[in-house]
Amino acid sequence: xATSKRDQAELMLAAKRAKxxxxxxxxxxxxxAALLTNSGEIVEGCNVENxxxxxTMCAERNAVFHAVAKGARGFRSLAIASDDAGFLTPCGACxxxxxxxxxxxxxxxxxxxGHKKITSLDRLFPIPPDLKxxxxxxSKSKK
Length: 143
Ligand SMILES: [Zn+2]
What we know:
The chain is of the alpha+beta class. The chain has helices at about 5-20, 60-70, 90-100, 120-125, 130-140; strands at about 30-35, 40-45, 75-80, 105-110, 115-120. The protein has one domain (about 5-140): Cytidine Deaminase, domain 2. The chain has a five-stranded mixed β-sheet.
């Protein structure tokens, strides 16, 4: 389900705002993300790096975890902003985490010039592993 141009513009602004909070001491690559929850709330996240590089957290997952902590369980759209001239897409780990909640959500990619490209999570991550189905099957077989 596509969001309105107005919601998209608001999400793009929120992602850009979140990018300014990025903690990117090591890569100097700042990323911001803004999620529109099913209840209409906008929740932001930024990348948070660590001197132990593997502990770094992406902006997209940071936004999801922040939103879940606030009670959200479904998302309509996600906007991503970076300083890159190209359109940054979510990494594999973030695609998996997003698909847990809203596998067909809209994704708004933006570039440093402020242009946007609209896609969807099912286009970026077409066949996610359905562990919920697997766990239902497992619990049925125990009966
Ligand atoms: Zn990621």
